Amino acid sequence: MDRLTKRSYWTSVHQHTLLRGLRPARSVWNPVRRLLGDRLVDWIQYNRHVYLRFLSEYLADMAGKSILEVGCAPGVTLVTLASELGLVPYGIDYSEAGAARTREVFETVGFDPANVIQGDFFCDTLLTEHKERYDVVYSQGFIEHFDKPADVVARHLVLLKPGGLLVVVIPNLLGANLVMRRLFTPQDLPLHNLELMRLPAFQACFRACDVCELYCGYLCRFAMSLSGGMTRTRKALFAPFKIAQIPLNVLCHLFFGVRPPKRSTFANNLAYVGRKPAATTG
Predict the structure, then answer these.
(1) Exposed end of the chain (fewer CB within 10 Å): N or C?
(2) d(CA 117, CA 200)
(3) How far apart are CA 164 and CA 238, in angstroms?
């Protein structure tokens, strides 16, 4: 199995991430929420609202349970879920810079930074040490960085307790998102397994595993949010699109609510939720 990214890439990403930009979104937006109200802020943050609501539907009754994020840096979504749903967060990241940033985020909101593991998810020793330890195993934007994602999914399940919940989310870089990437961040495309972003290929990754499917489909709507790495000219050209995202979010909320997209053209993510069979007693 080949990795489509190198450790040095993730180190460079996380070394330049400022802690003040890593606080959970709800704490950052609290003053705005007090001024405008929760509903309007959720409309402005449309995709984040839909994303967290989707995950909350499956995690709502798991207060006090453990949740592990694979490839956790910087850990913002993880601690947001843990804070709002009463979960105990853990994370694995193989970049030292990424693990350090996630520990800072944990400390900022009062979680134990020792719960962040700096190590290689593909190290068999690490998997043996943490085998069937977690109630929820979760990854976002992780498995698409490998040429054999089904093998990556299988390793998620090693860490999951019998009866536990598997949640895997990847970006959709096809359709409208592919156009935006080719225009503004074409250098990022080779870092992703684009074939995996076709729904049948994504679903096939889980069919070979011993897991009961609860959901497999598209999630969130088109978002004009791109990672760094743009030239100054591209940043200037992208600025109007970034500004247009706010009214687009409001329109999406008005017309679509929290319903998931049915087609890939304007979908922002693909998501899978499944349950590992409970242990049988003989």
Answers:
(1) C
(2) 33
(3) 42
Q: Distance between CA 118 and CA 97 in Å, rounded?
A: 9
Domain residue ranges in the chain: 7-275
Phi, psi of 262 (to 5 degrees): -95, -20
Q: How far is CA 135 from the centre of its chain?
A: 17
SS3 of residue 228 by DSSP: coil
Residue type, 67: I
**Can you tell me the distance from the alpha carbon of 196 to that of 202, in angstroms, rounded to the nearest whole number?**
5
Based on DSSP, count helices (H) and strands (E) in the chain, helices before strands: 11, 7
103, pLDDT greater than 90: yes
- Cα of first residue to Cα of last residue in the chain, in angstroms, is 36
Hey, how many other C-beta atoms are within 10 angstroms of the C-beta on 91? Answer: 28
Q: What pLDDT does 232 receive?
A: 85
Fold classified for 7-275: Rossmann fold (3.40.50)
Whether pLDDT at 132 is above 80: yes
Dihedral angle sign, alpha carbons of residues 7, 167, 80, 123: negative
